[in-house]
Amino acid sequence: xxxxxxxxxxxxxxxxxxxxxxxxxxxxxxxxxxxxxxxxxxxxxxxxxxxxxxxxxxxxxxxxxxxxxxxxxxxxxxxxxxxxxxxxxxxxxxxxxxxxxxxxxxxxxxxxxxxxxxxxxxxxxxxxxxxxxxxxxxxxxxxxxxxxxxxxxxxxxxxxxxxxxxxxxxx
Length: 171
What we know:
The chain starts with a helix and ends with a helix. The chain has helices at residues 3-21, 26-42, 45-74, 77-96, 103-120, 126-144, 150-169. Helix 1 (3-21) runs antiparallel to helix 2, helix 3 (45-74) runs antiparallel to helix 4 and helix 4 packs parallel to helix 6 (126-144). The relative contact order is 0.11. 84% of the residues lie in helices and 0% in strands. The longest helix has 30 residues, at 45-74. The radius of gyration is 23 Å and the shape is elongated. The protein is mostly helical.
């Protein structure tokens, strides 16, 4: 439930309570509406559980990718932490802006921003840059794909992991 619908529900509750009680009891109507609004704001357990499940899935997948595939070959602790923090940031940013209609444009814009950053900073090895884009892609998919089931999302993440394993096992 977004903020606008919560506010509309609160206003509707105030008006209905004011009509039932008469105009003399407007303070009581506002008090009842405020109580109903407070309850409805905290009762969105589905949205909270959706965020937590997807966040844990994203963090587990990114942690697995970084820990199992990236870190054993590079031993670069600085990129290890950077990858995890970027994954968390991208996921939360995209998931929490899920109501914005610019979903695909926003995700591609993130890729463009990180591409520009790549050319504005010190030289980053190609392997680290590849993992950075991979981590952004996984986090963007996990944050944007709210209309698919958990099984489909898990299968998508497993395809990423298997693809990385296939590429890394050839080296």
